[in-house]
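Hey, can you fold this one?
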Amino acid sequence: MEKIDITIVGAGVIGLAIASELSKTHKDIIVIERNYAFGQETSSRNSEVIHAGIYYPKDSLKAKTCIEGKNLLYEYCVKNNINHRMLGKLIVAANVSEILDLEVLYKNALNNGLNDLRLISKSEIEKIEPNIKAEAAIHSPSTGIIDSHGLMKSLVDEFASRKGQIAYNTELTAIEKSNSGYKVTVEDKSEGAFSFSTKVFINSAGLNSDKIAKMVGIEEDEYRLKYCKGDYFRTSNKKGKLVNRLVYPVPKNKGAGLGIHATLDLGGSLRLGPDDEYVQDLDYNIDGTKQRLFYDSVKHFLPFIEYDDLAKDMAGIRPKLQGQDEDFRDFLIKEESDKGLPGFVNLIGIESPGLTSALSIAKLVKKIVKGGDK
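Sure. Predicted structure:
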């Protein structure tokens, strides 16, 4: 049976970042991906925002990896000519009653070590974004947007340059503990089923990561994912010229997302979304009946948006550990020796800010793997 040093399941941005980082110091790494190409699921169905680290509790993995990952990502983009823009972002209090929540959010961001934010007044908002209506806002100058496909392509190229392999159209069907690590069985769409052994197994399978954990007997409720779907609507092209920054509402206390917000893409188009709707199945069809919901959600702070401006754009699904109306759940990144599974590393619930956090998460996993090598 063929022996592999490190096996990574999932060629989304997290799996690719881990593969690229590990390939700097390890040889004989393979990435298994069930789709025909990289980044076909959560990694390509999001707002492509580089987050600042404002929303997450102090010392959480989401906060730490987002803040470190943001800086790493900007450096990486410059070094590797990845298309990106540091546009900045406003989180707006659309009315006076939201100002207190805005101030609480601002204090949370300060506790996370963010020192470039400012609370700005209605008059200052009118100066820098005259088409936005708000009573106050948090201005985050280091928030930006990125070409996520370009990022992933660069990571793939780096990995390949170090002799790393990606097996596309290959689905994991079984994994079991063995004396030398793990016996991995996969189904290749063209060559059929085959097995190999691996010393280290990294589960970065996104929407299916909890199912893969279950394959080796990890069935705890805290590992179980909930699918949270987000639809997007695009506005008419001319409306993208009316704002210069990303515009977010004050988030709901126990909402699954950050609220329907306005993001510019690298082409200058304005997109609204995502909303949050818990679903049972992976269905990427967009519900056109939500047009009214989207319009009503943003018209208070984006008065230039008209109902007929909106058209269906895309949908994405977030692999969340936090269920509907539940409290905050952090990323689950864990080597499972305490469950009798040394060398098995789980990454579960890697949703937003996963794209921003990717390079930081890769460094964390590298430390975990190095610790297991001792």
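The chain is about 25% helix and 30% strand. Let me know if you want another pass with a different chain boundary.
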